[in-house]
Specification:
The complex is a heterodimer of chains A (about 200) and B (about 100). Chain A has 8 helices and no strands. Among the domains of chain A are: about 90 residues, Four Helix Bundle (Hemerythrin (Met), subunit A); about 55 residues, no CATH class. Chain B has a single domain, classed as Helix Hairpins (Orthogonal Bundle), CATH 1.10.287.3510. Chain B contains 3 helices and no strands. The chains are: A mainly alpha (about 200), B mainly alpha (about 100).
């Protein structure tokens, strides 16, 4: 039963990954990645990592993929033009990928880790559940937890700075909405770029 | 299933993601391939954590997930900024920093 589930999930993960690489339309690529992520969540469940699997589904398949779908729809999922600018790229890349796979496999399987061919020790029912992970996160790895929260905050601010203002003024005014634009302009007015206009620094 | 199956699957996924980054030209798809590579790393972390019988690898996987989310947010912000400046969404065209 476990082997069947493993091979089904592995096939899904691999198929999703190959779909991302092979499909020309980025929109279909995003959908293939969702298949890949769900299959990985199944694999995490098989490895008794219930909380990681739940976080995978909620964070990745729920939030990050929605972001991808929105941005792909916004920029218009155009299919890539055919033809490679670097000659021989289409043949060389799979070759290098295969070389990387063989190299990694040799590095891991030749590492003489004795437990590699075992299932791992018997673990209790509480292994990997939210309680155990939360205890570890808030006691042993508290510093990493706080650092990652700061990292998330910085990424959110950075994304707003990157995507929020620059570009054609008409588009951002209409699309983003006035109030958030004004609030953001007030935050940013400490560093006026060039002669900020009265409407909260919506410069061209 | 033995741990080696998971680790071999993880290295296969990593290689597929790396190949995608080499082949594709759309920055969105390159970000998707980066996700595949990060997830392959996550799978290896969780598999080894199961092998040792220790939950710390799962905490590492969660931190990797957080970093991946940050990377996605910043990368997609860059893509939106590129799109708004009406530059081509093609990494072979966007090579001003190449020197």
């Amino acid at each position: 039963m476990e082997a069947v589930l493993f091979f089904a999930a592995a096939l899904g993960a691999l198929g999703g990954a190959i779909g991302v690489v092979a499909l020309r339309n980025p929109f279909y690529g995003v959908l293939a990645l969702i298949v890949h992520l769900f299959s990985l969540a199944v694999l995490f469940l098989l490895l008794t990592a219930a909380f990681v699997a739940a976080a995978q589904v909620v964070v990745y398949a729920g939030a990050v993929m929605v972001l991808y779908v929105f941005v792909t729809a916004y920029v218009g999922g155009e299919t890539e033009p055919v033809g490679d600018p670097i000659p021989g790229q289409k043949f060389l890349a799979p070759l290098l990928g295969a070389a990387l796979f063989i190299e990694l496999s040799i590095a891991v399987l030749g590492s003489s880790l004795l437990a590699l061919t075992t299932h791992g020790p018997k673990v209790g029912p509480g292994f990997g559940n939210p309680e155990a992970i939360g205890k570890l996160l808030l006691e042993r790895f508290l510093l990493a937890f706080e650092a990652s929260s700061i990292l998330l905050l910085m990424a959110a601010v950075g994304a707003v700075v990157l995507a929020g203002r620059q570009g054609t003024p008409g588009v951002s005014e209409g699309a983003v909405g006035g109030s958030s634009e004004r609030a953001f302009g007030a935050v940013c007015s400490e560093h006026p770029p060039t002669a900020p206009s009265p409407v909260g620094g919506a410069s061209a | 299933m033995n741990t080696e199956w998971y680790v071999v699957l993880s290295s296969l996924l990593f290689a597929v993601g790396a190949m995608g980054i080499l082949v594709r030209r759309s920055p969105i798809v390159i970000l998707l391939c980066l996700e595949i590579m990060l997830n392959a790393g996550n799978l290896a972390l969780v598999a080894f954590s199961r092998m040792v019988g220790n939950q710390q690898g799962q905490v590492f996987a969660i931190v990797v997930m957080v970093v991946a989310a940050c990377e996605v947010v910043v990368g997609l912000g860059l893509i939106v900024a590129i799109f708004r400046r009406k530059l081509p969404l093609d990494v072979d065209e966007l090579r001003e920093l190449r020197g």
